[in-house]
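README: folding subset

This subset contains proteins for which both the sequence and a predicted structure token string are available. Records are stored as plain text. Below is the entry for BrnA antitoxin of type II toxin-antitoxin system (82 residues), shown exactly as it appears on disk.
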Amino acid sequence: MSSDRSRRGTDPRQAAEAAFRAVTRKVPEGPAPAAKTAKPAAPGLRETVSLRLDRDVLDHFQEEGPGWQERINAALRKVAGL
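--- output ---
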């Protein structure tokens, strides 16, 4: 009997990890393409986003109380090399 994965063709977890790596990969610095005219973000500007996290990951960051969002941000910055 074939597994559920072989019918779908790809493992959803592997696809999600590949997508995450693609968007978190550090882009080499260089001149911006001429077509891009977006204004640079103001230093320290934060953006509200919706993010799905495993319950145990969220519990880990929330167990020390207030400031859990800043701790998640700091962990993501460290992993991203920022």
